[in-house]
Design brief:
By secondary structure, this protein is an alpha+beta fold. The chain is about 20% helix and about 30% strand. The chain has seven helices and 18 strands. Strands 1, 2, 3, 4, 5, 6, 7, 8 and 18 form a nine-stranded antiparallel beta sheet that branches. Strands 9, 10, 11, 12, 13, 14, 15, 16 and 17 form a nine-stranded mixed beta sheet that branches. Bound molecules: pyridoxal-5'-phosphate (PLP) and 2-OXO-4-methylpentanoic acid. The site of pyridoxal-5'-phosphate has 12 residues, from helix 6.
Length: about 350
């Protein structure tokens, strides 16, 4: 472990680690995994990733347990989602095995950046895939570059595990109903930047998007999925414009394990008034409880916590998920890969 890093002050910011992984797709096939110690890449200025958004990324984490072992959470799911995204924007698909091999390798090579158990921090793993053939007419690339870099991270929201306010800004959409919302492509995040900045300026931790067509149903937050809790039920949106979150999938399983009923369906905005708790979930966000949701254009507010204290169900989910990730509790669903 690196003694020079102040683990206690980590947030979610780029930090250069020792090594990253690269793998090229050329002449219709994937090459070998390459290790680099440079954080720069050299690509053609007419690359399709730069002009037509042929770019996809993933996000997953590695955790150091009390036993010193390093565990990666559900990496095959990230590999499969990258494949789905690749199909969604006509990119070459990286085999799942190759993705997992690259994750293992990059974590192992950067082992000293995996934070100590006591810090409560983790190693964020950021795979990305870009089209690198020069193309000026709109069309997919022939050649692709897959990369993974890593960095140690603390909480995504600066207050850590605390309930924070989110906002509905009706003049912005993140993704069209049949657009790229279910794929993890950079364009979705570009589309969320103005609304996100506006929300932050107004003191909110995130924007909660409604469905773009009817502005009637809850979709998701800028960087995370949404869930609501009531009557021992875990309720999360079904929508054609949200990212299928691996954390959300895991919470649905944990909710069932805890004897809750899981409902994945449309959530009309009015239903927000009936939830006992609400939260965001994602790799970076983990479980982030929502203090209140302000629909400012409609002058409505839904309040779940007045003092920032997370509700009991959000707390239970947060503790359970982290216990599995850090190896404090048995991995009964086989979600964790130990890096040897
Ligand atoms: N929704 C969006 C828009 C995201 O960027 C993320 C982050 O990856 C999520 C949801 C959560 O997905 P996951 O739990 O797979 O990290
Ligand atoms: C993640 O949770 O991994 C994300 O990608 C969210 C965000 C940093 C865009």
């Amino acid at each position: 472990m690196d003694k020079s890093i102040d683990w206690g002050s980590l947030s979610f910011k780029y930090m250069n680690a020792d090594y990253n992984i690269r793998c090229y797709y050329r002449d219709g096939k994937w090459g070998e995994l390459e290790v680099s110690s440079s954080d720069q890449i050299n690509i053609h200025m007419a690359s399709t990733c730069l002009h037509y958004g042929q770019e996809a990324f993933e996000g997953l984490k590695a955790f150091r347990g009390r036993d010193g072992k390093i565990r990666v959470f559900r990496m095959e799911e990230n590999a499969k989602r990258l494949q789905r995204t690749s199909d969604g924007i006509l990119m070459a698909k990286l085999p799942v095995d190759k993705f997992c091999e690259a994750v293992r390798k990059v974590v192992k090579l950067n082992e000293r950046f995996v934070p100590p158990y006591e810090s409560g921090c983790s190693l964020y793993i950021r795979p990305l895939l870009i089209g690198i053939s020069p193309r000026v007419g709109v069309g997919p690339s022939d050649e692709y570059l897959f990369m993974i870099f890593v960095m140690p991270v603390g909480p995504y929201f600066k207050d850590g595990f605390k309930a924070t306010p989110v906002v509905i800004l009706r003049q912005y959409d993140r993704a069209a109903p049949l657009g790229t919302g279910t794929f993890k492509v950079g364009g979705n995040y570009a589309a969320s930047l103005v609304a996100g900045a506006k929300g932050h300026e107004m003191g909110y931790s995130a924007v909660l998007y409604l469905d773009a067509k009817e502005k009637k149903y809850v979709d998701e937050c800028g960087p995370a999925n949404f869930f609501g809790i009531k009557d021992n039920k875990y309720i999360t949106p079904k929508s054609t414009s949200i990212l299928p979150s691996i954390t959300n999938m895991s919470l649905q399983q944990l909710a069932e394990d805890m004897g809750m009923t899981v409902e994945r369906r449309q959530i009309p905005e009015e239903e927000l008034a009936t939830f006992e708790e609400a939260g965001e979930c994602g790799t970076a966000a983990v479980v982030s409880p929502i203090a209140k949701i302000d629909d400012i254009d409609e002058n409505r507010s839904y309040v779940y916590s007045t003092d920032g204290v997370p509700g009991p169900v959000c707390t239970k989910f947060y503790n359970k998920l982290r216990a599995i990730q850090y190896g404090d509790e048995p991995d009964v669903h086989n979600w964790v890969t130990i890096i040897e």
